[in-house]
Write a structure and sequence with these properties.
By secondary structure, the chain is α+β, with helices and mostly antiparallel strands. The protein has four helices and twelve strands, in the order H-E-E-E-E-E-H-E-E-E-E-E-H-E-H-E. The longest helix is centred in the N-terminal third of the chain and has 25 residues. The chain is globular, with a radius of gyration of 21 Å.
Length: 224
């Protein structure tokens, strides 16, 4: 009798799990893949801004809206002073590259929420700046490791969700090149989702010659 009860319980659990998975497939199920960070050429700008290539995908069979994103940056050894950044623009990467990787009004437009249809994906290049710039101190760069956390608020949730976390190391050469008005690329080769890599590569934004000799599974940096 106990074995029968156990078998019935297992079958009921399996049915509940299958039903939950089926319901989830019918819902809006957004995911975000990211890990690369670009420091555009600073030019005359007095503040540091971060450009992130992000790949948004919807695994569900219902559409929804990506309402907003946010980025939290924490220097290693200074966990009590994270910096919150908000999206200030979406960047047209072709125009950005034609402008020799310098930000200009011609390659930027306001970042707004956008619809993501069922079983679809889209790549966006989002420029982040310090939130509440009038009151907050600008993002300061120095040698060391930085931790990045990407939060996304979608229409299927009441609260934002941590979608990606990654880290990069800024070396003295990166800072020197940035001060010399060069763009700095921090590439996360641990981002392994093939579809995301293909979609981002289609925009031809990644540096080429500087990546020779890098192993695909390692975290590396490149300068252009």
């Amino acid at each position: 009798m106990e074995l029968v009860s156990l078998a019935v319980s297992i079958l009921a659990l399996a049915a509940a799990v299958a039903a939950a998975l089926k319901i989830r497939k019918l819902e809006f199920c957004p995911e975000v893949v990211g890990g690369d960070v670009i420091l555009p050429r600073p030019g005359a700008a007095a503040r540091v801004r971060l450009l992130l290539p992000l790949h948004f995908c919807n695994a569900g069979h219902a559409g929804g809206v990506i309402e907003w994103v946010a980025l939290r940056v924490t220097p290693e050894g200074d966990a009590d002073h994270p910096v919150l950044l908000s999206p200030v623009a979406e960047v047209d990467m072709q125009r950005f590259i034609h402008a020799r990787r310098r930000l200009s009004e011609d390659c930027m437009e306001a970042f707004t929420g956008f619809a993501l249809d069922a079983r679809r994906s889209v790549s966006r290049f989002v420029l982040f700046d310090v939130a509440e710039r009038a009151r907050a101190a600008p993002l300061a760069l120095q040698e060391g490791r930085y931790y990045f956390e990407l939060f996304v608020k979608a229409s299927n949730a009441n609260q934002p969700k941590l979608e990606a976390s990654f880290a990069h190391v800024l070396e003295s050469k990166h800072l020197a090149d940035y001060r010399d008005d060069l763009a700095v690329y921090l590439i996360d080769y641990n981002m392994t989702l093939p579809g995301a890599r293909r979609a981002l590569a289609d925009s031809e934004w990644m540096p080429r010659a500087q990546n020779r000799g890098q192993t695909p599974s390692s975290s590396a940096t490149a300068i252009v």
